[in-house]
Design a protein that fits this description.
With 209 residues, the protein is mainly beta. It folds into two domains: 21-34 and 45-68 and 158-208, Immunoglobulin-like (Sandwich), CATH 2.60.40.4130; 70-156, Immunoglobulin-like, CATH 2.60.40. Helix content is 10%, strand content 48%. The chain is built from two helices and 18 strands. The strands form six sheets. Strands 14-4-16-17 form a four-stranded antiparallel beta sheet, with no helix packed on it. It has a four-stranded mixed beta sheet with strand order 6-5-8-11, with no helix packed on it. The model is unreliable at 1-17 and 35-44 (pLDDT under 50). InterPro entries: CarboxyPept-like_regulatory (IPR008969), Cupredoxin (IPR008972), ET_Amicyanin (IPR052721).
Length: 209
């Protein structure tokens, strides 16, 4: 029985981290010109490094099939006449539940190519579900309150990371090879960079937006 348990654990570990797997780690920097963004009638917020997203554009086919991420339900709340969170990351196929926790009517709509929709006006405490099937950046707005905005980053796979406040990030384990990373930030745009994961060790990258 004990031998079977050990073999089962070994098999699980092998499926999570393939032989010769390494990772991509690095640091993201924001250039000058980080300006506060209006998010409410009387509130301001600076979109810091933790609002950025880093992801792998594509994976080797066999590896992608073995490590296909399953969409998990997500939630975006409208409260104090703003979206929370401001940036949401999901895998393609995820259904996001929008919840109105204010005492006023709200709306959510997007005209982004990755997902065009309009849920109409909905009352306090009401909910609406929207599924995001295609990778891309989706800008969210409220038709009633024009200062409200948020972002849904719909990803092609589960190999992504959110940097910390210092801009440091690390992706999940990847097999050796060359990968194209996508870096995105709400106010500093996006950039792509080729990174090599060696047969031993990690790929390291530093990017400024």
């Amino acid at each position: 029985m004990r031998i079977r348990s050990i073999l089962a654990i070994a098999t699980l570990l092998a499926s999570v981290a393939p032989a010769g797997a390494g990772t991509i780690r690095g640091r993201l920097h924001l250039g000058s010109g980080s300006k506060p963004v209006t998010i409410g009638a009387s509130s301001m917020e600076v979109m810091g490094l933790e609002q950025a997203v880093v992801w792998v554009d594509s994976l080797p086919p066999k590896f992608a099939r073995r490590h296909r991420g399953k969409p998990r339900p997500a939630r975006i709340v409208q409260i104090d006449r703003q979206f929370a969170p401001r940036v949401t990351t999901v895998i393609a196929g995820t259904t996001i539940r929008f919840v109105n926790r204010d005492k006023v009517f709200h709306n959510v709509f997007s005209i982004s190519p990755a997902r065009r929709f309009d849920i109409g006006r909905y009352s306090p405490s009401a909910i609406r579900d929207v599924t995001f099937d295609h990778p891309g950046v989706v800008n969210l707005f409220c038709e009633i309150h024009p200062w409200m905005s948020a972002y849904v980053i719909v990803l092609p796979n589960r190999f992504y990371a959110r940097p910390d406040r210092a801009g440091v990030f690390q992706l999940p384990k990847l097999p050796p090879g060359r990968y194209r990373l996508h870096f995105w930030h709400p106010t500093h745009g996006e950039q792509r960079r080729e990174v090599e994961v060696p047969s031993r060790g990690d790929g390291v990258v530093a990017v400024s937006l």
